[in-house]
Specification:
α8 packs across α9 and α17 runs antiparallel to α18. With about 425 residues, the chain is of the alpha+beta class. It has two domains: about 190 residues, D-Maltodextrin-Binding Protein, domain 2 (3-Layer(aba) Sandwich), CATH 3.40.190.10; about 220 residues, D-Maltodextrin-Binding Protein, domain 2 (3-Layer(aba) Sandwich), CATH 3.40.190. The protein is built from 18 helices and nine strands. Strands 1, 2, 3, 6, 7, 8 and 9 form a seven-stranded mixed β-sheet that branches. The chain is about 45% helix and about 10% strand.
Amino acid sequence: MKLKASITIVAGMAAMAAAQAGELVVATVNNGHMIEMQKLSKQFEQANPGIRLKWVTLEEGVLRQRVTTDIATKGGQFDVMTIGLYETPIWAKRGWLVPIKADPAYAPEDILPPIASGLSLNGQLYAAPFYGESSMLLYRSDLMQKAGISLSDPPTWEQVRQAAAKIHDPKSGVYGICLRGKPGWGDNMALITTMVNTFGGQWFDMSWKPQLTSEPWKNAITFYVDLMKKYGPPGASANSFNENLALFNEGKCGMWVDASIAASFVSDPKQSKVAGKVAFAQAPTAVTPKGANWLWAWALGIPVGSKKVEEAQKFVRWATSRDYIQLVAKESGWARVPTGTRQSTYANPDFLKAASFAEAERKAIFSTNPSDSTLPKSPYVGVQFAAIPEFQAIGVAVGQQMSAALAGKVTVDKALEVAQAAAEREMRKAGYYK
């Protein structure tokens, strides 16, 4: 009996060890497309019986902190990380990411060029795009029609302000506009940077000196705070993508400027009460169209600290393939497939029929130029971020000040003054200037 028990225990331990050996830990962001991937990934496990997936699903800001810490220390906590256009080239240059093995069946040439370029270093792909996006204006066409408003495409921020004033009806539960206010370099600062760009501003001049107290920054932030205080929802300083998506789907936002990926969610009658009443335009402009709409991709990367690189490569190729897009279409419909990654998606008549936003989204992505996104010449690459390692800390510090200004805790001038000091401190510490 003891021998049998011992054998059973040893066998059980061996099975656990085997299971652990084939376990891939995937860190991802908590949005709709990623949650859909988790559901469908059972099919990947069935096709690859030696691999089991363990999901770590986090809010955007927390995800960034966790994966940055893990990859910098080579902690090996994650085998696949959800990262973006900002991190990928920086981490690849530091030797922190495993190159993506893209065989002919994967069709790397099918990836949209702006997205592929942003996720590559020296022509080598270091993260595979799960979905890509630009930013755009989503608005309630029924409310606009009722108010007798017509917007140009792209509209100006002034047109947006005037429209927000006319459709703002908080007594009926409708706010003129919803915009990001939650602090974070990838939260409120993604939107705010595009506003600063189009108001004629930049993060750094050609000497790498921060420009946060410049006239364009003051004009953009004053406009943003005033717009949101008058026509935004209460508590806007705590809202980012998911919170504004929930408000819009409930019919509480007349307009919303955010990621183009939102278009598929607000057009889905299963989750949106206003599906069928939404129209789309390019992101608003002010002084210049340069940098008015951002460029981003949530992509899957493999850290060099992973002990299961081959298994991770298999999963990454599966989740970002043309076949995966077909799988989502089969299970959930073409309107819900992850977009912004492959040219074949935008050439598919079934997708174009189901997705009224398709052409606007594609146009927005191709209109971006990360190497020329500001009116004055800038030393950095990036539209809604500056692709330097120090930007993450700077963006977080500045985002906190902008959120405080929106919440009425500080004046715009004071917020920009404190933000400028924080940015200067980081840049001096990094040796950009004395």
